Amino acid sequence: MSVSIADELQQAKIDDCWRIGERTFRSRLLVGTGKYSDLNQTRSAVEASGAQIVTVAVRRTNLGQNQNEPSLLEVLPPDRYTILPNTAGCHTAAEAVRTAHLARELLDGGGLIKLEVIGDDKTLYPDMMATLEATEMLVAENFEVMAYVSDDPVMARRAEALGCVAVMPLAAPIGSGLGIQNRYNIGEIVAYAKVPVLVDAGVGTASDAAMAMELGCDGVLMNTAIAGARDPVRMAHAMRKAVAGGRDAYLAGRIPRKRYASASSPENGVFFDV
To answer: Model-level pTM?
Structure first.
């Protein structure tokens, strides 16, 4: 039985998976869970995004440690989603390591962690020296570290060398919506990384997500861009399509940039002259 082009493309999308440690994922959009109006909106937006990985701020989210409040895990159950705890709000390596231990206890011993160590309260840029220190400590304790890093290719390589399972360079300051400010640096990080590269922070709209994927990133993580939109659920769906479209464009291979026009119709072999 013959296979149509559409069927081949669909199968290619199914086969185009990526890995974090021993885990395999199809969706390349990762989403945060903060800033929504309520848990119902959180659930609806995450479902619309198609994300398989959702990240939660351990110090700001009830994962069951407060029995008197609704738990996020009631609307985003761990048997359906990979829960990625993060160390948001930490300013030292020691603080981040303690938060990672708390996450491991709350999530039944899981070792996957998104490491954030903030160095500046205004821009929320990472403190890279503290991030590298915490990475080394957590890897030694068998955590799978996905590190939020600056868009410095050298720092990204150092984080990877210490054992990170993924590096997550910022596109712009967290929550700024400015989009990718340094495409060259992101491209350099992608070119040398042997672990997944996920753009994290600064995405504002669907074109930003598509750009990240066109640069060759393995995925994009976002929260404010969706939760802060006028219609979060619709934006989540838009981001889902943008990430998929950007990935397809990257795999298809864009045409070279040129300074001058190039006729799309050939000048020889015409049927008649006028």
So the answer is: 0.88
Q: What is the C-alpha separation between 65 and 32, in angstroms, rounded?
A: 19
Taking 60 as the threshold, does the pLDDT of residue 97 lie above it?
yes
Q: Per-residue pLDDT for 147 more than 60? A: yes
Task: Tell me how far apart the alpha carbons of residues 115 and 167 are, in angstroms, rounded to a whole number.
Answer: 10
Count of H helices and E strands in the chain? Answer: 9, 10
Over 90: is that where the pLDDT of 162 sits? yes
Contacts of 109 (CB under 8 A, 6+ apart): none
**Reported confidence tier of residue 58, pLDDT bands at 50, 70, 90:** confident
- Comparison of pLDDT for 94 and 72, the residue scoring more: 94
Any catalytic annotation for residue 114? yes
Determine contact, residues 165/197, Cβ cutoff 8 Å: no
> What's the CA gap between 107 and 84, in Å, rounded?
10
* 22 contacts: CB under 8 Å, gap ≥ 6: none
| Calpha distance 10→6 (Å, rounded) | 6
Q: Which of these is catalytic: 114, 122, 241, 258? A: 114
Tell how far CA 140 is from the center of its chain.
24
If we measure between CA atoms, which residue out of 92, 87, 93 comes closest to residue 115?
Answer: 87
81/109 Cα distance (integer angstroms): 16
Sequence-ordered alpha helix ranges (H) in 16-116 = 39-49, 93-106
88, 78 contact by CB (below 8 A): no
